[in-house]
Amino acid sequence: MEDLFYETKDFFQLKELEKMAPKQKGIGKDQLARIKIAKASVKDVLQGLVDDNIVKCEKIGTSNYFWSFPSAALNSRKRKVDDLEAELEQLTKRNEDIKKSIATAQDGREDTDSRTELLATLAELEQRNEEDKLELQKFRECDPVLLQAKDKASVVAKDAANRWTDNIFTVQAYCRDKFMMSGADFNSNFGLPEDFDNIP
User: Fold this and answer.
1) Which positions are tagged coiled coil (predicted)?
2) Whether 44 and 60 share a structural domain
């Protein structure tokens, strides 16, 4: 469709382009039906060209007019080339800056005897640190803070269990008074052991 504008060097409305675009490329009615070029596809292609700034669009009155001239395409391509060259220059400069920063970072990191010795000491200390962490894990169960937290948690759990036991005794007393049910019958009906009582 871009060629249509360049060959005619004219401006068109969308309806004109929908009629002319298939004919301009030598597509007959049979071929048009076969490859299913619809008015919507002409509109989509045209919108893509407008979005890419290849075809210009201007609303005059109630109509939209579309045009593109070869000189405009040439200028557009020149601008694109200029933009790409500027981007290339910027990326080249950035590449040089990165190379300089790498060279600066490598200064003082040459392989010397003292550096090699320090790196070996560092590796040895890191390994020893890992071994100490593993050793510490073995004694974690004896940690006083952890033991104190477990004691507090067990007191809370015991209080909660006794609270629920008291609630069951309340229900048991209600059933005994309301339904004349003995404590043994209540326990057997609800699957409670005979020695069911609070935790001391």
Assistant:
1) 74-142
2) yes
Residue-wise pLDDT for 101-133, tens only, equals 888 887 767 777 787 888 899 999 999 999 988
Residue 135 lies in a domain: no
CA distance 68 to 54: 7
Half-sphere exposure of 95 (CA within 13 A, CB side): 6
Q: How many domains does the chain have?
A: 3
Q: Which domain holds residue 60?
A: 2-68
**8 neighbors 62 (Cβ within 8 angstroms):** no
**Does residue 25 lie within any of the structural domains?**
yes
Determine the Cα–Cα distance for residues 59 and 126; give it in Å rounded to an integer: 72
- Is residue 29 in a domain? yes
What CA–CA distance (Å, rounded) separates 148 from 167? 29
